[in-house]
Specification:
By secondary structure, the protein is an alpha+beta fold. Helix content is 53%, strand content 6%. It holds the Pfam family VPS9.
Length: 1133
């Protein structure tokens, strides 16, 4: 023993709690004795809560941190009975669990074996009554632990729930209390001074302070009432000067201020209290301007009337009462300038990349300014904020070195106003200048904003000015030229270009319509592509090559979508134009080509994302594409290509794309979308053409998406037969993979798919089902096992699991019926090496309840156990033809248990004699066989323990390696992956153990039968001795009978009584001798039949073992090699 009490002579398990329970040499001593006894007696009624191994090794009990000596959690796990009992939960049928009434919510309250309570709900465990603190721990995994110790039943499995913390908490993983105290809750409530000043309005003050509302509500109601004759001017639609409207508003504002003043006068009701209240508010918010709040309150209540008056005045151009109410931007003017381009406004920007920047600013500014037309914008401050934001968008310098001067700003603002097409924009500006709180002239920036808009209005208010005429003419020329492109009028375009060439030659003016771009930033070249006008596109490029420089072409893009010419050409599928653009791109440097191809649009997509429109282009530009670049949906170009399910040449598309992508540096994980789908998940067909499965590394064929679907389950779910066939042949495939969320396996998805398929898809579904079942029978089941269990569901009416069998016969049976058939078989064949029902179903007792999260997982293991049972039956010589009949899986009915017992008894009562010599031979044979079987059993038990421990230690090794990598990343200031606490996976040893345990169970069964017969032999000898003794006594009576024969008719009464007593004694001896002789005959018959049966079963055992062990090794090799292939270790030399 080590100093700390832990065993030093056994292979320690890395998790201290599991090591204490399953690998404890002191299990028969306190404090472990009672715990071990409870677990051993009803191991299926308990579930062990397992904290992370690293946490137990490296953390302390939080309660001990305040004391002078800290207590490590691993010491509690080894020595503290309460800690151990607190992590063992009663989940059996007698655990008194309170389940949630809603089935979708997996929640239940359970008691630990020390009387504490936990709540299991929605993947979390919450500590409750009895625990020192209210904590919560996340459930990270569940599983079964195969026991290998001698003090638990052989082959027993214990349910484990893995969590991310201990139920005592830990020093490295602090958890807050579930419910805050009332004081803490009160502290979270915002105090008045925490309310932002900007969010305070006068209306809010009225709601929050009833005293203030009581003082001013009635006067304000009268002020804003429609019958208020004093301000009737605002309610009559007559032509009037704008100053009159402004004056009426000012008067109402003064009335509002007076209402506030009157409310705080000492002679008014509650005046003093109202005054004190307002002073208290102002002290709490020193930055609050009460006059501003009142102004905004009046403005909100009068907005509808004010705005209606302004609209009426600005609409009456024929009978204007005020020159300031002139409507400049009419619908006609907007139409006249609708095609105006930025290059035609004397903006000193020639570089195409800077022009793109300005066009994008204009587009964003148009969106912002268009908010003025929103009917919910009813305050001058909101309107001012909109035009202020518009100016800020145009002048921002965050991503550009371009400086915007005043003249440039006016030009940009003209574009914004003209293309936003806001009706009555003049009224909006007038409202801002005349109805806002304060004076604009006091703020220099606001004055600059307003003056900028005034300048735009001035420039566009004089249609007779040459500047406006030029803009109108330019807009008209743009419209006519773009219309020619869209209508494919090549002859007219040719004549127009010839005329332009004669007029300007190589040097086009900056404001020429050939260089014009619409509000989306689309040039004539872009419009030609959009309209699929190849002739015009070629004509524009070839008429005079000096008109469009290489920079003009490379930076020609739709500024709203950021799509360049090549992207649009691919989208429009204009292959000839695409080819021309590729030729032009070939004249650039390699760096320029890569930058152009991988520049992204508004959705984050590059040219590579659109190559599926012309997949032959991949061979030319594939080497330039960044295939790992993700768009906003996390699609890489390769991922996007694979999703083109309706492509006319999908196979060629996939083959071409993967031939360009696949290389030794190909990273499979990079091509995953935000839902966790890999390329294998979304590939419709052509998996062989892709060559993905031929890659030696980086390909995880078992990866799951956010819905816990693997590529295999996706192919089954969506009927992708071609991919399914190819994937089933891959050595890395985990065919029986179960997701960690619902524990569905491939057979569940086959069942789901079969139920969802309609009549048209039924043939496809049946074909998929056939492939899945055939693969399972080929790789997981021996040839002679023709029927296995695939699915099950719980029947609430029968309170039993209904099992679905598939094979030569498709049968549905209840689990209880299967167990009864097994029991009947054992009654009929008491000496069969097939174990008893209790041994086979040791871990799955009848009516055994488990935690809700364990239900599906436990059912999967039960089906697994049932199939292994069927496999073992198929390897028994007596069941070569139909092993499934043993469990009642045949069409013929089984006889009852009573009939089976009568048949066995009748067989045993048949006459048969065994001589002592024969008996000695039988005894010698059985004794020698028992000795050999015990030696084999001892070796088998050791081997099974080794298999179990080996699988656990492999998991421990992997856990230690992950913990080491986590610590190393923390030391290197890297972002480590989240530490996990998962169930030990199967490294192949668990699979081998599941079959080798049957060798152990059959040996135990044969030895038990041998011991039973040896006991019968002892009974036979004792009975034989009694028969000989009784026969000797009978001979003595018969000899004395002749001596007493002469006195038989004596009249002496006393002498006659003696003779009568001897006769009675003689009769009793005869009867006793007859009974013992009959019993001896039965024993002889039973021993002979049992001997023959056991001898046959020993022969069957040798044949059974010779078949089972190679099959078990084959399954071990399959699981182990699958893991090696999955991890890429098969390439190591």
């Amino acid at each position: 023993m080590a100093k700390d009490g832990r065993p030093s002579n056994l292979p320690l398990l890395y998790n201290p709690l599991l090591n204490c329970i399953f690998n404890n040499p002191n299990h028969s001593r306190a404090p472990y004795k009672q715990i071990i006894h409870e677990l051993a007696s009803r191991h299926t009624d308990f579930t062990i809560i397992v904290p992370p191994s690293s946490l137990l090794h490296n953390s302390y009990d939080p309660e001990s941190l305040k004391s002078s000596s800290k207590i490590a959690l691993h010491d509690l796990a080894y020595h503290n009975e309460e800690f151990i009992r607190s992590h063992i939960v009663k989940t059996g049928s007698n655990s008194h669990a309170f389940l949630a009434p809603v089935a979708k919510v997996q929640s239940a309250i359970y008691n630990t074996i020390c009387g504490k309570q936990i709540l299991v709900k929605n993947g979390m465990i919450f500590t409750g009554k009895g625990f020192r603190r209210s904590l919560r721990a996340k459930i990270t995994d569940i599983g079964y632990f195969d026991s290998f110790c001698d003090y638990f039943p052989s082959g027993s499995k214990f349910m484990l729930i893995y969590i991310d913390n201990s139920l005592y908490g830990s020093s490295d993983h602090p958890e807050p209390a579930l419910e805050a105290s009332p004081k803490a809750q009160q502290a979270k409530i915002k105090r008045p001074d925490q309310v932002p000043t900007e969010s305070i309005t006068f209306e809010r003050l009225l709601r929050n302070f009833p005293l203030l509302s009581k003082s001013v509500s009635d006067p304000f109601y009268q002020l804003f009432h429609h019958n208020n004759y004093q301000f009737r001017v605002l309610r009559t639609n007559t032509h009037k000067k704008l100053s009159v409207i402004k004056s009426e508003f000012d008067n109402m504002l003064e009335e509002a201020y007076q209402i506030i003043s009157n409310s705080v006068k000492s002679d008014s009701p509650d005046g003093e209290q109202t005054n004190n209240l307002l002073h208290q508010i102002l002290r709490s918010y020193p930055e609050l301007d009460l006059n501003k709040l009142v102004h905004e309150y009046v403005e909100i209540n009068l907005y509808d009337k004010l705005w209606a008056q302004l609209i009426f005045q600005f609409s009456a151009n024929a009978g204007l009462a005020d020159p300031d109410a002139t409507k400049i931007f009419t619908a006609e003017k907007y139409d006249e300038l609708s095609c105006l381009s930025l290059n035609q406004l004397d903006i000193p920007v020639d570089e195409p990349w800077l022009l793109n920047d300005l066009l994008l600013r204009v587009y964003n500014a148009i969106i912002e300014l268009s908010k003025l037309a929103d009917a919910t914008i009813i305050e001058s401050s909101s309107k001012l904020k909109i035009i202020s934001n518009t100016i800020s968008i145009l002048t921002e310098n965050s991503n550009s070195s371009l400086m915007i001067d005043a003249d440039t700003l006016i030009g940009l603002l003209i574009m914004v106003v003209v293309h936003s097409k806001i009706d009555f924009i003049e009224a909006h500006l007038y409202y801002i200048k005349n109805f806002m709180y304060g004076t604009i002239s006091d703020d220099g920036y606001l004055s600059f904003i307003i003056s900028s808009f005034d300048a735009v209005f001035f420039h566009l208010s004089h249609p007779d000015e040459p500047q406006y005429a030029d803009m109108k003419e330019s807009s008209q020329k743009n419209f006519e030229f773009w219309s020619l492109i869209r209508s494919h009028k090549v002859d007219e375009i040719t004549a127009l270009l010839e005329e332009t060439d004669k007029l300007y030659g190589d040097k086009l003016p900056h404001n020429h319509f050939l260089k014009a771009r619409n509000i989306n930033g689309e040039s004539a070249l872009m419009l030609a592509i959009r309209s699929k006008n190849y002739d015009t596109f070629l004509l524009l490029l070839s008429r005079n090559p000096n008109w469009f420089s290489i920079e003009d072409i490379l930076f020609d893009r739709n500024t709203t979508t950021s799509q360049n010419l090549l992207m649009v050409s691919l989208m429009e599928e204009t292959k000839i134009i695409t080819k021309i653009l590729i030729e032009i791109l070939g004249s650039c440097t390699l760096e320029e080509q890569i930058a152009y191809i991988n520049s992204t649009d508004y959705s984050g997509r590059s040219v590579g994302h659109y190559l599926f429109h012309d997949y032959e282009l991949i061979n030319e530009v594939g080497h330039l594409v960044n295939w790992e670049l993700k768009d906003h949906n996390s699609y890489t170009p390769l991922f996007n290509i694979c999703r083109c399910y309706d492509h006319y040449a999908y196979y060629d598309l996939i083959k071409t794309a993967f031939s360009a992508v696949m290389s030794p540096n190909f990273n499979f994980k990079k091509h995953t979308d935000k839902y966790g789908n890999s390329i294998l998940h979304i590939l419709l067909k052509g998996i062989d053409q892709s060559g993905l499965l031929k890659a030696d590394k980086n390909i995880n064929v078992n990866c799951t998406n956010s819905k816990c679907l693997t590529p295999l389950t996706v192919y089954v779910k969506y009927g992708r037969i071609e991919n399914l066939i190819s994937l089933l042949q891959d050595k890395r495939l985990e065919f029986m993979f179960e997701d960690k969320k619902n524990f569905f396996n491939i057979f569940d998805y086959v069942a789901f798919s079969s139920r969802k398929q309609g009549d048209n898809d039924r043939g496809n579904s049946e074909e998929i089902t056939s492939f899945i079942y055939s693969h399972y029978f080929k790789h997981f089941i021996p040839l002679k096992c023709t029927t296995v269990a695939f699915n099950a569901k719980f029947d609430t009416t029968k309170k039993d699991w209904i099992v679905y069998f598939h094979g030569n016969q498709n049968i549905i049976l209840g689990l209880d019926s299967i167990k009864q058939s097994h029991h009947s078989f054992k009654l009929k064949n008491p000496h069969s090496l097939i174990p008893d029902v209790e041994k086979v179903w040791l871990n799955y007792p009848a009516n055994g309840s488990v935690a809700p999260i364990f239900a599906k997982f436990r059912m999967n293991r039960l089906l697994e156990n049932l199939n292994i049972f069927l496999v073992c039956l198929s390897m028994h010589p007596n069941f070569d033809t139909a092993p499934h009949e043993t469990l009642g899986l045949s069409s013929s009915g089984n006889s009852s248990s009573l009939d089976q017992m009568k048949e066995v008894i009748g067989k045993q009562e048949s006459s048969s004699k065994v001589t002592p010599h024969q008996l000695a031979e039988i005894e010698t044979f059985l004794s020698l066989s028992k000795e050999n079987l015990l030696g084999t059993l001892s070796t088998t038990i050791k081997f099974n323990k080794l298999m179990t421990v080996m699988n656990i230690k492999m998991g421990d090794l992997n856990t230690i390696r992950e913990d080491s990598l986590y610590s190393a990343k923390m030391l290197c200031d890297m972002t480590p992956s989240i530490k996990t606490n998962y169930h030990t996976p199967d490294y192949g040893y668990r699979t081998m153990f599941q079959y080798f345990i049957w060798v152990e169970l059959t040996l135990i069964e044969i030895i038990r039968n041998v011991n039973k017969v040896l006991g019968r032999i002892t009974d036979w000898r004792q009975c034989h001795d009694r028969v000989l003794s009784l026969a000797g006594e009978l001979r003595k009576y018969e000899d004395k009978r002749h001596e007493l024969g002469t006195d038989e008719h004596s009249n002496s009464s006393w002498f006659g009584n003696i003779i009568e007593n001897k006769r009675t004694r003689y009769k009793k001896l005869v009867l006793l001798h007859s009974e013992e002789t009959k019993k001896l005959g039965l024993l002889s018959n039973e021993i002979k039949i049992s001997h023959e049966d056991i001898a046959a079963e020993m022969s069957h055992y040798l044949m059974f073992r010779s078949k089972l062990i190679p099959f078990a090794i084959k399954q071990f090799t399959r699981v182990a090699t699958t893991g090696l292939n999955r991890n890429g270790l098969h390439v190591l030399q």
